[in-house]
Amino acid sequence: MGLVGFINGITLKNYNMTYNLLKGKKGIIFGALDEKSIAWKVAQHCVSEGAEIVLSNAPIALRMGEINKLADACKAPIFAADVTNSEDIDKLFIQTKEHFGGGVDFVLHSIGMSPNVRKSIHYTESNYDFMHKTMDISAMSLHRILQAAMKHDVINEWGSVVALTYIAAQRVFPDYNDMADAKALLEGITRSFGYHYGVKKRVRINTVSQSPTRTTAGSGVKGFDGFISYAEKMSPLGNATADQCADYVVSLFSDLTRMVTMQNLFHDGGFSFTGVTPEVIEQMEK
Ligand code: NAI
Fold first, then answer.
1. Which residue, by CA, sits nearest to atom 41 of ligand 1?
2. What is the pLDDT of residues 260-273, one digit of tens each?
3. Which of 40, 125, 126, 138 could cross-link 182 (Cys pair, CB 3.0–4.6 Å)?
């Protein structure tokens, strides 16, 4: 039985089971915006499990200031980096290596943004400058991070990289818009880079395909409220929460999953393999 940590009013973990799974490990967490963010929960859970972390987000997101609370609670420095800018990422990795006096054992990519979604532009009328931005921020950023990590030799042997994705990469969810294409690319980069980083340094790279979750990015998708209840009804275990997602990610950062790489791993309460449920049929009969 572990401890629940309360620092600066923030609960490090929402229940009292910790296993020291990440004792002695160091990592970088990209994408904690506010306490609803999946990355925020992952940061908390990693620290509860014994890790030391560095937090990173875009300069504009840091200006919101929310992340300072998380940084205090996790005793983590914050290094700004816009993931579409290679120089920012280089700088972040240099700062991280200086901070830890060496490399890291895990990296979380929890980043997504689509200007087409933000501006409610229909998929068939996508603006291509916006689409470039969607791909750059939400997918190519993983390649950029991994390329820079290799260049600076920042990830230790048997290190683990996880990126967050969504099932719209495999099945059509019309309102997910160009984010669906970005997620397909993200999963492709995971496989391709996973091969090369595996051969080069035994670094593993996986995506976690999470249930719809109420966060800033999630709620930006049209019809999100209706959709989240539909997914709940279509999942035998119900929707997975951000906290549960963080638990799963911790397991992927731990030494217990060393031989898992290049995979897209569904963390969705069974949604991805369910055809229909009585609850949905009942709804249709009304
Ligand atoms: P969020 O809005 O809290 O996180 C998105 C993060 O991306 C923010 O911290 C934002 O500042 C960061 N970001 C955007 N542009 C950036 C840039 N240029 N450079 C650096 N960082 C940038 O939302 P959430 O839901 O926690 O999203 C995290 C990941 O989880 C995303 O990849 C999202 O697509 C994925 N996901 C979310 C689901 C949901 O329903 N919320 C479901 C499945 C996957």
1. 218
2. 999 999 999 999 99
3. 138
